User: Which sequence fits this backbone?
């Protein structure tokens, strides 16, 4: 797909990014309007499979576009997971790196997008290290795991009991499994569903009548089962705690209405969290992430300014090259004329060449450095114009460096 | 010359312990695990410097008595830090450094303010029994102190989790299970050391006065503290008391022990 895009002359560089909720194409173009049309057609034909019809119309409604500085900022924000469904999610950085790698491999990324994505990765790293944007779980299942790890040192040697066999239980169990929990038992009213979940997660299946015995062996208990009355009553838990010789238990009650009697909170060794508690913790973490957004956005703005400076400074490249070649032409002409009048041996001729070259370089060093620096600012354009005027670079006959306008596209290229 | 080196090393050690505590505190507050890791390295460097300090004392004195309060407290801080660093290899305990490092700093700082002990070690107190008494009792006290500190952090964490308060994923705080284990291990090792310290103390008193019991306040309170810990050991390992009451007892026990061993000595 990237090769197809690059085949069109209005697109110079491209990176195709695909995440769980978006497909984006970052392109460098000299003709933003033509590129826009080309990309619209690319999305309709190559992704939706048709240039018209309902799908294409629906696709049109979902299309969005960022240009110039907005586009740069968007890439930095996306890579830093500030534009994600779950702010601060860690996967987006990996997905962006993968997209960039694919673009580099097929030659679709050039010097500008290379620089932009390197800056984006650096920004993402800074955002991750300098803010708490990625901290604190924001899903109920992850909060449960995070809490379990605050109670137990390792989950590998712990045993979980699942009461119920619904989707929520399955998600929480999967999250616990991902964090090392190995032994689990499933207890449910319907034996078949318990058996299905047990097979899927390598657990054992039980009936609800075995609950008191299972409770004694379980460190983490997840409940989500229908019923009007709590199935884990104060008495049942008290008996289990006594048999467990005061080993701690983490009880997660996701059932509505509650499956666990809140009165068990009085036991020191029991840590009970119901769905409201878990959602509360998740919301607090999400709120913390939102607060961190302000700091993260400031980092993005700072990094964007850095990239912007570099990008703007590219405007100076043709002028600098032009000026250099003009002065070099003058130098070599004068040296040639002088040497023609003098009868010098080869070694001395070389010395004269080196001497004049060194003088020219020294004279040009400061003004060219200053031009580069000034070109990073918006007002720097005036300096470039003055330089062109002073050295007559725009006058007829001053085009002796037309061949070196290699980077001239940077003057009118936009990452879009 | 060597004395000034000992003084310098002691000051540097105190500074490193303080820096470790500050780094750990900042790391926890900002959720920066890099800072917490740096604090562990700083504490380790402090422990090495502290060891160099004791080695130099041995060079100066041969076998030092270390029977004065500053030496014993400094030694206690060192053993506490070493025990913590050893336990750190077995569990995610870096968060406990927030309490261990400042305590070690206070001990070494106090000792460094009274650095005259090198020249003034009383000749009558040298010998193997007093030396063994101080080393064993200080090591026991250090471990029981570690038990108390882990108990304090356990209570704070227990309260937070019970109150259902959110916590960032990278907080670096130890788990309740790890804190409870430190509490138990420190008690299991510290109590026998304390017992040996009390026994050698009695032998020392006997060597000085002809009887192992003189009825001094220090002796009375120390034996009471020992009895409290004996009950605690039975509660924890015999009747398997829960983690929270054990944490409370460890704090109370250490408070009383400090008063018995250090406080009574300072006030009488």
Assistant:
């Amino acid at each position: 797909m990237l090769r197809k895009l690059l085949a069109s002359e209005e697109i110079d560089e491209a990176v195709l990014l695909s995440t769980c909720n978006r497909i984006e194409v970052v392109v460098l173009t000299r003709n933003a309007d033509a590129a826009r049309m080309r990309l619209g057609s690319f999305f309709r034909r190559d992704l939706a499979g048709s240039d018209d019809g309902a799908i294409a119309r629906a696709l049109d409604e979902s299309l969005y576009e960022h240009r110039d500085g907005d586009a740069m900022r968007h890439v930095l924000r996306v890579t830093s997971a500030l534009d994600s469904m779950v702010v601060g999610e860690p996967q987006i950085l990996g997905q962006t790196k993968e997209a960039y790698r694919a673009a580099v491999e097929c030659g679709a990324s050039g010097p500008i997008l290379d620089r932009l994505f390197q800056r984006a990765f650096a920004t993402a790293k800074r955002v991750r290290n300098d803010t708490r944007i990625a901290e604190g779980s924001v899903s109920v299942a992850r909060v449960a795991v995070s809490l379990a790890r605050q109670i137990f040192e390792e989950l590998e040697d712990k045993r979980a009991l699942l009461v119920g066999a619904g989707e929520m239980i399955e998600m929480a169990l999967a999250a616990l499994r991902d964090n090392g929990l190995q032994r689990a038992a499933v207890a449910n009213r319907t034996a078949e569903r318990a058996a299905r979940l047990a097979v899927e997660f390598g657990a054992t299946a039980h009936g609800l009548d075995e609950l008191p015995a299972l409770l004694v062996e379980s460190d983490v208990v997840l409940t989500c089962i229908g019923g009007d009355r709590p199935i884990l009553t104060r008495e049942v838990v008290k008996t289990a705690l006594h048999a467990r010789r005061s080993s701690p238990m983490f009880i997660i009650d996701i059932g509505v209405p509650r499956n666990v009697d809140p009165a068990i909170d009085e036991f020191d060794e029991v840590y009970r969290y119901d769905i409201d508690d878990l959602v509360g913790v998740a919301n607090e973490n999400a709120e913390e992430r939102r607060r961190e957004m302000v700091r993260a956005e400031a980092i993005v703005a700072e990094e964007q300014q850095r990239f912007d400076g570099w990008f703007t400074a590219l405007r100076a490249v043709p002028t600098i090259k032009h000026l250099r070649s003009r002065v070099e032409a003058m130098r070599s002409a004068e040296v040639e004329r002088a040497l023609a009048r003098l009868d010098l041996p080869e070694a001395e001729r070389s010395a004269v060449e080196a001497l004049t070259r060194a003088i020219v370089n020294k004279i040009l060093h400061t003004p060219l450095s200053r031009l580069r620096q000034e070109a990073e600012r918006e007002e720097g354009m005036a300096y470039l114009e003055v330089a062109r005027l002073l050295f007559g670079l725009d006058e007829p006959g001053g085009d002796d460096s037309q061949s070196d306008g290699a980077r001239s596209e940077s003057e009118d290229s936009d990452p879009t | 010359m060597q004395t000034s080196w000992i003084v310098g090393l002691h000051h540097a050690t105190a500074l490193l312990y303080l820096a470790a505590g500050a780094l750990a505190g900042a790391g926890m507050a900002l959720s920066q695990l890099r800072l917490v890791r740096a604090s562990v390295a700083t504490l380790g460097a402090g422990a090495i410097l502290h060891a160099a300090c004791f080695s130099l004392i041995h060079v100066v004195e041969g076998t030092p008595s270390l029977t004065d309060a500053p030496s014993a407290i400094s030694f206690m801080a060192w053993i506490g830090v070493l025990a913590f660093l050893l336990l750190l290899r077995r569990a995610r305990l870096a968060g406990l450094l927030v309490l261990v490092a400042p305590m070690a700093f206070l001990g070494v700082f106090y000792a460094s303010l009274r650095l005259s002990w090198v020249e003034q070690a009383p000749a009558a107190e040298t010998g193997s029994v007093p030396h063994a008494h101080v080393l064993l009792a200080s090591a026991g006290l250090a471990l029981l102190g570690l038990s108390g500190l882990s108990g304090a952090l356990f209570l704070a964490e227990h309260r937070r989790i019970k109150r259902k308060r959110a916590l960032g994923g990278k907080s670096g705080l130890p788990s309740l299970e790890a804190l409870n284990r430190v509490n138990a291990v420190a008690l299991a090792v510290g109590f026998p050391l304390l017992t040996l310290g009390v026994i050698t103390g009695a032998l020392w008193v006997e060597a000085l006065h002809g009887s192992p019991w003189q009825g001094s306040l220090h002796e009375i309170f120390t034996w009471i503290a020992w009895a409290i810990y004996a009950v605690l050991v039975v509660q924890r390992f015999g009747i398997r008391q829960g983690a929270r009451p054990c944490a409370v007892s460890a704090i109370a026990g250490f408070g009383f022990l400090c008063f018995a061993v250090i406080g009574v000595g300072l006030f009488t």
